[in-house]
Amino acid sequence: LSKRLEGIFNNLSGQGKLTEEDVNAALREVRIALMEADVNLKVARKFVERVKEKAIGANVMGSLSPAQQVLSIVNEELVEVLGGSDGKNKLDLSGNPPNIIMLVGLQGSGKTTTAAKLANFLTKQGQRPLLVAADMYRPAAVNQLKTLGKQLNIPVYAEQAGADPVDICVHSLDYAREQARNVIILDTAGRLNIDERMMQEVMNIRARLQPQEVLLVADAMTGQEAVRVADDFNQAVSLTGMVLTKMDGDARGGAALSIRSVTGVPIKFMGVGEKTDALEPFYPDRLASRILGMGDVLSLIERAQETIDQEEALKAQAKLQQGKFDLEDFLNSMRQLKRMGPLRGVMEMIPGFNKLAAMPEMEEALEGDQLKFIEAIILSMTKEERRNPDIINGSRRKRISRGSGTTIQEVNQLLEQFGEMRTMIRQISTGKGPWAQLARQY
Ligand code: GDP
Ligand code: MG
After folding, report:
1. Mind listing the domains of the chain with CATH numbers?
2. Is the ipTM, as predicted for this complex, more than 0.95?
């Protein structure tokens, strides 16, 4: 997506605010990305409307291109819709123990597997869970849970075939107390489709046991179908949360966005594999970038926002364009870049630097301890020398090398590098000369 947006914005430059046209063009791409991620059409439309309101007229930050600016608003909004700031994505075990977690969902959605994963997860957090086999609809279900419990060394409460699921759950409470278990996980029966008897059964269990958490386990691969299932279950048993399973497949998680905005039910966990440790707490920001397929870009945007002072960036850019670039700017840029980590990606984000970034020479210049050298040398210069490097003659070089604990050769080398960079920048910003030609190829 970010590549496509860059394309749209390539011809725009230097505008201070996002115009409606910019935003519309970008949002067309965003809508397509959402559809590709299997987001419900209505939800996508509503979402895009909201982003539009926020984006039009927003100031373009000095360090971001318009495309990145729109993307960053889209990302913020996605995180928000996925529950970024409401804190409801956490499991609530604050009731009197034993706390009960009830899992509901269609057959094959991953309930039994998730029950075991949750028990494993909670055990690692120092809890003492008990698994309860309350799926009496599928004969193999009880054994499946027993096997998983044995693997994890977590007790499983089960009864004979033909026992009533509500009774089983009620009995498990006593068993949990006897065994000093403080969390009970109920694995209930599903059907292939929404079915009245299944619903009645989970409604009965919910009413009798009053679980602290009622989690719908839904298969992310089923996309739109999962939205309907969530809506139905939520109306019948009022869910406290969801576990989206099979997120290790190609599902891009659009279902999560749809479910959250249609039902308001928070997503609490993601299943990411068949093994019992393949469960992750739900992080809205991670899923947001996955939905937009732009993980790297977003983390770069974040880092840029954290480290680049907007005004500094604008000032540096202005100086670059005027071809005025002194050793102080050189040092500041190097420091900013160093703080921002992996060089190549970061430089691409800075106006004026994006073309330079593609050049291998630049990467070399900042590797390893180079920056320390550069800092030491530049800091040993007087203000005047930094502003006007051309005055640095032989005796000044000697003084600087002594002051910085480096050799004269190293001081010379730095000045040479700086000189090259200044030439390079001047050529690129005026569009004339071999460096400008080279930059055009990148
Ligand atoms: P239930 O009928 O709802 O209890 O579903 P099961 O727990 O028996 O799971 C059905 C199938 O989905 C099994 O083959 C599981 O191994 C598989 N499964 C469950 N969760 C995940 C997951 O997060 N990722 C993958 N790849 N497979 C899963
Ligand atoms: Mg099962």
Report:
1. 2-85 (1.20.120.140), 99-282 (3.40.50.300), 308-441 (1.10.260.30)
2. yes
